[in-house]
Amino acid sequence: QAVAFINQSEFWANQARNHGGAIYHSAQRLNVDSSRFESNESHVHGGAIYWDGFAQAILDIKRTTLLNNRALQGKGGAINMQRAGLLELAESTFDRNQAAMEGGGIAAYGDGGTIYWGGFSANLENNTFSQNQSLGNTGGAIDIKGGALWDILHNTFSLNSANDGGAISYGVNLTKLQQINLDHSLIAGNTASGAGVDVFFAGGAGTILSLGSNLIGIIDASGITPSASDLSGTLSSPLAALLGPLANNGGLTWTHLPLAGSPAIDGGTATPLLFDQRGVPRSGAFDIGAVERVSGAPRISVSVSSGVKLWPNPSQGSFQIRLAETYEQPVQIKIFNNAGQLIHTTSLAAGQNELKLNVLRDQPSGIYLVEISGPLERESLRIVRD
User: Fold this and answer.
1) DSSP 31-70
2) Contact 80, 54 (CB under 8 A)
3) Global pTM exceeds 0.90
4) Across the beta sheet with 15-16, what order do the strands follow?
5) pLDDT tens for residues 152-186?
C-alpha cells in the first residue's frame, strides 16, 4: 500500500463534487506536517480531507492549520474518516470549519463540525479547536461514532457550536467504541442549542473516562464522572476558562492563551507532554489545555514562510541557524532536551545573523527545542537528532 508525505504545503480554495475538498486518500498512510488547509469545500463529506482507511491505516497530522473548510452537505467540515485505522493528531489547530447535516434522522450517525470518525483509535495531543460548527446536528468540533480507544491529552476546545455537543459528541450505535480517555484538556466556552453545551453523550455504547486535570465549563449531559483533580461547572453555574482570543502566541499554529486568573493556569498534575502546542516547555504546576502560560518575551510564529532557517533537520549533531535580519543587540540561543532541561546556551553577536552549532553530537537521538530570543521577540523551533 502507498504512503504519502505532505510537508510545508498549502491547500487553498479547492473543491470536490463529492468527498475531500483538498485530499481524498485511501492508501496505507498519510503524513501531513507543518501545512495549511484553508477554504476548501466538499459537497458531501470531508471539507479538507476525506480518509477512507482500513485496520492498519494511519493518518498522522502534526503542526498543521485547518481553517474555514466546509462540508456543504455532509460530515466533517475539515476531516472525514471512514471505516478504520489510527488517527495521530498533534500540535494542530482547527479554526472555523463547518459541516452541514444530511437531513432529518441523521443525528444517530453524527455530523462533526471538524472531525467525523467511523473507525478504530485516535491519539490527540496538544491541539486547539476553535469556532468550528455543526449546522443543525451534533459535535461542533468532534463527533465520535466509532473507535476502540480515543486518547485526548492537553487539547483546548473553545467557541465551537452545534445543536448537541458544542465541542464533542459521542455515543449512539457505537458497537466498537470502548473508551474515550480525557486528560489535561480544556473544554469550555462552547455553545449548543440542545443538550451538552460542551460535551454530549448521545447514549448507546462507549464511555468517556476522566484521567484527571480537565477543565469542563458545563459538565451537564456529558456522561463524564469528574475526578478529584477536575475543574467543572454546570448549566446553573458555568466555569469560565478565561482564555484570550485565538491568536499568534508562538509556534506554527494559533492558540488560545490562558489569561491571568484563568483556572487552567497551574491546574494540572503530572503529564507526559513536556512541551505545549507551540513547542514551549511545560514547567512547574502544568496548565490545563494546549498552551502553557509562561512569563517572558512575547513569541512570534515560525511559519512556512518564516525568515528563520535551521538546517539540516533532522541532524547528525551539527546544524546551522540563519536569521532573516541582524540585530543591534546580541541574540540569545538556548537548546533544551525533550525533558525540558537546558543543555546549551550561546549567542549571536550584534550584527551577525548566522551560527553553526555542534552541540547535539554528544546527545542521544530525539527531539530538541531551539529557542531564539531577540530584543523584543522569541521564536521556538524543533530539531530532530538522528
Assistant:
1) EEES-EEES-EESSS-SSEEEE--TT-EEEEES-EEES-E
2) no
3) no
4) 15-16, 41-42, 70-71, 98-100, 133-135, 161-162, 191-192
5) 999 999 999 999 999 998 875 545 556 889 999 99
